[in-house]
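chain below, 222 aa
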Amino acid sequence: MSRTAVSPTPPTVRVSEIFFSLQGESSRVGLPTVFVRLTGCPLRCVWCDTEHAFTGGAPMTIAEIVAEVGRHGARTVCVTGGEPLAQKHCLPLLSALCDAGFDVSLETSGALDVGGVDARVSRIVDLKAPGSGEADRNRWQNLPLLTARDEVKIVLADRADYEWARAAIAGHRLAERCPVLLSPVQDRLAPAELAEWILADRLPVRFQLQLHKVLWGNMRGK
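prediction:
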């Protein structure tokens, strides 16, 4: 008696939202971008602005996500969270988006291993300053893996955070590895004050503000 083969269930990724907007951060700032925000994060930064992605969302197959991304008609894609790498099928999702011809970046907290990320993906890796409350979660082993196509982002709440970041940039020679971006926590550190510190120290970094917040405030899906 023959048995009918049962096709394996395709893996899914829990997605908080997929939306089309302008990239508000990184060296891709201003580019029309499709954002794939995955659900879940093991960190709880005190200034986090995406708490809605900690829970909820809906499971989607990788094929469904790629199709939905393609519907928006943009080549640039950002996979973000939450913490995308907390989901085991994030890595094949990143590769599938690259295979489909998209220019893909990954925004990650820096607390999880980035070594398995497809080499075609630009890794935007956070370093958590003390003001975040999660500095002890930094995975310093990630830094030697970074290349010129990757970036390090540090969000700063005060002068102590800035001095910590300045020491980390020098101690790990980060600016020699990849672009380094510093940004102020909204309503905690005046942007002009951070800009003056960077200029005074001739720090080899890029200052950034979150463009999407300048344009739309804290509106979700923007």
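The chain has one domain: 12-216. The longest strand covers residues 12-22.
thats it, cya
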